[in-house]
Structures are given as structure tokens and as C-alpha cells.
## 1
Amino acid sequence: MWEKNMPINEVREIRGKTTIFLGAGAIKKIFDIAKELKEKDIDKVAIVTGKSSYIKCGAWEHVEKALKENDIEFVLYNKVTPNPMSTQVDEATKMARELGAKAVIGIGGGSPIDTAKSVAIMTLYPDYTTADLYEYRFIAKKSLPVIAINTTHGTGTEADRFAVVSVLEGGKEYKPAIAYDFSYPMYSIDDPQLMLSLPKFQTAYTAIDAINHVVEACTTNVTTPYSVMLAKETVRLMAKYLPVALENGKDLEARYYLTYASTIAGICFDNGMLHLTHALEHPLSAIKPDLAHGLGLAILLPSVIRNIYPAKPEILADVLSPIVPGLKGKGEEAEEAAKGVRDWLKSVGVSETLSDIGFKEEDIDRLVELTFETPSLDLLLNCSPVPATKELVEKIYRESL
């Protein structure tokens, strides 16, 4: 295969609305980025990250050195949790404003980078809270520049305009999304060397997130041939390299292609949008903030496949062929496709159900309510290839128990 002849140690540029530096050693591009920031009179930045992985993965030593060498003042907010909360964005925003930050750097997976995108907006809107932004009480018009240093291979947020933050204030259980054209990162770094220490469970969950991105994006009612093409390549690469990375997390080639697959998956749904799996997962991790996003998606995916397959059999048979071979693209294969996806998930170590993670039948009404009540999720539901009725949403939750 051609992958063997790709020089993964040479950093290459992927240009879209974001310029992405992909390759082993790409983290060193932060020195060029810092120099450019200073030349543009961006001499104060806010850094947003999690509690410790930014140090453990090796990113911080480069970032700190690059900023100091270019006399760029910075503040560090390192309290971002998985499924970040609006109150965390507010805390980080306060630090950014007090510094007078002119840009924001996010280091981590989806949670820190989405938080960085949110801080970059909220720093310019002192009269509002992050909850106001995510509950659409105002429409933002601008943002500070964002630099994304990605450390997981699942989110795709380093390549797209989306951000997700949970709003749990006042007894709410919302996990909405925003998407603005000014929220594309100025630069992103995708360095697989930063991912060599990803634990096995995170390796699986983040890859499953990318799989869900493309399965949804290629089957929305607004999809494009471009999204279908990216979806096919994402699933092929994930199917080939995820088992390798699970067997040996230090395999740099596997990490490189999982990173690339995740990135093009982000571009895929930036063009094709998402629908049921993400719309139904957001209430799960809003209620249980400790739930890994990728695990929640994995639990829902077989049922979503079963229920959408008759509407998009040709596309799904083609896209899923690396993990569910033999599908003919006929609507009556829905159960076979769902079982094949479930079997593949089990093969990468993910077999949980909603019951396994603590949800019960009596929780379903609340989950359905949140699916239709949470701001922004109606946009995803409206992209579903089949009518996203309350009955269908309830059915998917029940089948996932």
C-alpha cells in the first residue's frame, strides 16, 4: 500500500480553512508560529489545556520555550476536564481578559481545543457568559486567533469550526454545539509523537469518535461526494491502523495514520454535518460528564446504523466495507450492518451498553427530552436521513440499553 512510502517524519501542510502541520515532529512548528504571532504584534496569549497530559505528551516544553524565545507573555489555564463546562470557559476567559490576550492556544484533544475556541470568542464579549453563547442568547461576530495543538486522534476540531461545551448551571443538563466561520484555528499541529502515550481505552474511544463523524456526515440529507470520499478513507485507515495502535501504542506509523484519519474526518463533517449519533450522545455525557464521548457514541452506533441503513444502503455498504465486508447495499441488510458494526466495536475492546454505564429504562424519557430541548441539537436532528421523531430517538435509546 502507498502508506508505506509516505515519509511520516517529514512535516507536511494540509490546507483548508485551517493550515494543519501533520507529521512526526510537527510540534516544532510552534517556533515558527510564535515568531509569526510576534511579528503580527500578538505578544500576549492565553493557553488552555487539561490537567497534566500537555506536559506528559511533550507538547509543553516546546510551547513554553517558543513563547519565551519570542517574548510572548502568557497565562496558563490547565483545568479543562473531559466534556468541558461553561464555567471552565468563564474561568479561563477571565484570565485571558486580565492578561489582555490577543490569541488563544489550545493543547489537548477536543475538550481543550473546543474550550480554547470558546475562550477566543468570550474574551471579546465581556457582557455575556459562556452559557449565553451556547444557549444562543447572542450571536458572536468575532474571535481571537486560535492555535490548536492536537494530542488525540478523534476529535477533528483542529480542522473544523465546531466547538462543544456543557452548560450545567442552574440544574441544566445541556451539551450544545456552536459553529462559526471565524472559529477555524489559524494554525493546527497534528504530531503523532504527542499521541504515543495515549492509553489504550482513549486510543479506541477517540478513533470511534472519528468513525462516527464520517458515518453520520456521509449519510446526512446535506452530504456531498466530498464527504463520502473522506468517509471511505477514514474508515479504511481506522480499520487498518487502530488494531495496530491497540497492540502497540508506540507504533508511530499507526499513530500517524490514525491522526490523519481523524483530521479528514473533521473536515468530512465540517462539510457534511452530523445527525443522530451525536445528537443522542450529547444528553448522555451531559447527564454523566465523566462518560467518554467516544464510548457514548459507540454504544449508540449499532442502533443508529440499523435505523438509517434502509435510507442510505449504498453509501453505508461502501463506507463500512473495511469493518463490515460483504454488504451489498440493500435496505434489508440493516440488521446485518448493525451486527457487523457491533462485532467490530467488540474487536477493538468496546462492548458496553447504556445499562453497563449506569443508565436505566426510567432515564429514557429524560434523555429524549434533552435531545429535543438542548440548544443546537435540532440542527443535527434536521440533518438525519430519516425523520428524527421522538419515537425514533426513544427507539434508539431503548435498543442501546
## 2
Amino acid sequence: MLDDRQTRTEKLAGEIADAILEGTLEPGSRLDEHMLAGRYGTSRTPVREALRQLATTGLIELRPRRGAIVAKVTSEQLEMLFIAMGELEATCARLSAMSMTPIERRRLGAHYDQMGEMVAQDDVPAYTAANTALHAMFYAGAHNPVLSEMTAGLRRRLAPFRRAQFRAPGRLARSHAEHGAVVRAVLAGDAASAHAAMLHHVSLVEDAFEQLAGAPAGTAPEAARMKAG
């Protein structure tokens, strides 16, 4: 039951995040729990939990006596977050190449192959979930709990922006190809190449989001449009 509730909350948080990134919910607007519950056909409890979850991403702010407000994320903030994300993920990939066990490497390779089938079927929801799991394998494979926790926390903060990239045409196939470079380097134990490939991948994730954000007004948040400019 707890897993079902958590899944519903995550799904709702994703839907609200998408509305913010698409510009339907504009920066500065108040997110009323009653309104959101009616809009998404649910009760206030999962709405409240979803808003708390989104507050950790920086997409919304929880203010005393005002409730939840859609935050205005600046281009500078996004750039700093993506730079930090790239450095942390690249370090995880480098350490994974050095530290992953044979079992972890086999699981990584198998998971990557399964993602190829999702690309062929253009299954965005499945690929999005598998993408998160793939990166988690690199975090765990680094065998450094402190680094893993830091990286996973920053990823949660950037999750709505990273998920939005998959709406860009052809992004699924490009993402899979970028992952392939990282996976091959890790499986070969090539730490330097794994680091470089992951750093390159995260920079292209940012580029994909910028291109999507550069779409006509109303399809992306104002902060993202500013960054794309």
C-alpha cells in the first residue's frame, strides 16, 4: 500500500512538474491544494505530498501562510546545477569503471541492452524510468555512499528538467547512444573514458533541455527560455 501511494505521489509530482515546465503553471502563481486536487482527480493528501517532493527540486517554493508558489528558476541557477551534476555523475562513472563487481557489470550491460528495446519501441515512459535506474547503477557502482547520496540528491533536484529532455525529437536514440559510450568504458574498466563520456552526456542533456526550452512561448518555463537565449 505504501508503494502504491508513493507511486501515485510521484506520478502526480511529475504531472505538476510537466505543467510548470510547459508554462501552464507560470512562475509566481500560487498552487492551491483544492484546485490541484480537482484538476488531477485526487484528494489533497497526495497533492500535499507531491508539492513537498517538488519543493526539493526547486520548481516550487513552500512559503509560510502563502503555501506553494511556482518558483522562478534563473538561467544561472540551472547552469550551476547542471555543471555540478555533470561533475558528480562523471566521478561516479570513473569510480564505477574501477570498482564495479563482475555481477554489477553484467547487470549494467543487460539493463543497457533492455533500454535499446525501449528506444526501438519509442516507449518514453519506460525509457525514462530505466534511465533513472541506469544512472543509479553508476552511483552504486562507485562504492562510495557519500558520493552516491550527494549525486542522487542533486539528480532528484534536476529530475523535472532531465525528464523534459525526452520530449525533444530524436532525443531517446541520442541518449541511448551517449549511455553506450559510458557503459562500454565502465565495462572495459577504462576510468578516464568513462569520466569523459559521462561528462559529455550530461552536457548534452542540458543542451537538449535548452533546445526544448527554446520552443515557442507557452511550451517551456520563462527561466528556461531565458537560458536558451
## 3
Amino acid sequence: MKEIELKLKGHIKRLTNETFKFDERIKDGWFSAVYFLKTKEITKAFKADNIITMQFFQKEHAVLCGTDEVIALIHTFADEPEKLEIHSLKDGDKITPFETVLTITGPYQNFGYLEGIIDGIFSRRTSVSTNVYNVVKAAKVSGVQKPVIFMGDRDDHYTQQAGDGYAAFIGGSTAQATHAMSEWWGKKGMGTMPHALIQLFDGDIVEAAKAYHARFPEDELIVLVDYNNDCIEDALKVAREFGDKLKAVRVDTSRTMIDQHFIRHPELMGTFDPRGVNAQLIFALREALDSEGFSHVKIVVSGGFNEKRITEFEEAHAPVDMYGVGGSLLKINIGFTGDNVILNGQPSAKAGRKYRPNPKLEIVEHELIQYSK
């Protein structure tokens, strides 16, 4: 196994193929487009002395993620990686359309077959980090940042959790639903109770919360209160039972449901959409908790939230303390492209593409790269 140390912007990052759990079949071209593999063989036979520069870019305003992973990939699977010249931005950099984020210079046959894999790493990681950055930004009003919980475990294949969690961390979310999501950046997942726990106690919110608190007394007690579709009444039941021990309540009402609060008070309806988690429900919940002296209890909302909905809640000054966001953060909407733009020191690219130098790129210093078995 190779261990790689590289210095970027004055600090040392330690990257290993164990960190990223690369599939060893990458070396055999199993995950590369076949035309890249054929080009590698043709180049070895007919153009072995070539030196090309490959550059990578995308077309959005984004938060870059994937550079560490890509550099580790290159130094794990390229032939003679120590002879390649690599310039890179770093994870977390803000990038603009067509801005060059990485260049690799060396013989095509030594690394060219990794092009599609590099595009894919950048695309997924940057999409997630940018999505998270945008919702975190939406949840910051008047200089106060409300936490965003990354809850993307059920929205994609489980093997993606570590990389997605790292990208979410780069985007600004440090509260994550699984241990795997925080594997690459050294924390552990956080969470309280699902609807399943309340079901096991026949829908009794208080008894479920008692069991949770008895088993995990050191945890902050955050209780899910929408199981019976009566958020305010159930929140008050839990608050009366636990008092100062209750940290927060979470509202996760389905968008096809109308909470019992509005059924009891039909006069409140008619000027807004009463389904699901809505700002009016959260205002009413806050007022009910405060009226009984439970102003310390925070409110967490989840269920279909994205940048647009968070912005709407914040513009309405809804009294939300924390957002839980899942599927919308995993939309892959940023695609990267790798182009060969210099051949043997001379500009050379397909029509419509060209070398785009970027003074922000930093060289990966090869003297800091160490290999050990």
C-alpha cells in the first residue's frame, strides 16, 4: 500500500489508498472507458515519447471537492507517478465556470486512462459539497448559522456514504447521520430516534423518549414528535415529562399530511399550504412551548428540505433552530471535463477547447511524496 504525503497551502495532508478504499481493479482499467484503454495501448506502441498536459474544469459556480482523492488516485494507479507534474486547487476552494482546477503533465500512457474516473470523482464530490454549501448558506441569517444535519443515508447506495459525508463536511455540514459519513474527517455520526422506535412503544412518545433516555442518558434528548401527526400536543407531553432534560423536538411531517393542530383550528387555514412541515406549524409549536415555560427546547425540522425551502423559512423568520436535509444534497448536477490541451510543449486541443492557465493552482511537491509498502 502506498502512503502519500503532500503539501498544499502550507499544511500537510496524509492521503492513502486505504483512506479512500480504492478498488484495485482500477489498475487493470476495469472502470475506465474502453476507448481510453485502447488509446493507452496505441500510444505505447506509436507515440511513447509524447508529453501531454491534461486539464480539468466544469461550468458552474461551485465549491470544489475531490482534489485529495484524485491526487491519491493518480499516485496509486498511474505509472511512474513521481515523474508526473501535477498542479491543483484544494478541497473547499470556490471555483467559477471554466476555471482550471487540476492539470497533469506527463506521458499519456502513464495516466490518461484515469481521465473518466477523475471526472467522476470531481463531479460527485463537488456536486455534494456545493449543494451542502448552498443550504448551509441559506440557513445563515443576520450572521447566525443554523446547523444543517446531513441525512443522506437513505438516498443513495451505502458505499457512497464516506465520500458524500466528506464532501458535505467540505460544504459546511459537520452533523451527519452515520459513522461512515464522517470516516474521512475523523468524527462520528449523530442521531436520536426514528419513527420505528415510537412505533415499538405503540405510538407513545413519552414512553419511547423515556426508553431512549434510559439507554443513552449522556445524549442530548431530541424527540421526534410527528408520529401521531399531532406535533404540538406530543411536544408538550414530552416537555412536561422531561423539563430541562429535553434539548429539542424534531418535526418531520409528511407533505401529504395536515397536522392535527390545523384540524382543531380550521380558522387558521386558507392563506397557506397546511401540509407537511410549514412555517405556520413551527410558529404555533414555538408559541406553545414558550407559553408553558419551555423556551429552552429547540426545534429541528426535516422532510423534503432544500435550499429553496430553507430560504423561504428563513425569510418568514420561522423559529427553526436546525435543519435536517437529505436527498436534495445528493443531486449530481456538476459535470467535469478533462481535456488534453498541450502536446510536447505546444498548444494542442480539439476545436472549442484550449489551455486555460490558472495562477491559483499549486504544484504538488514531489519531494514530500513518500512511498512505503
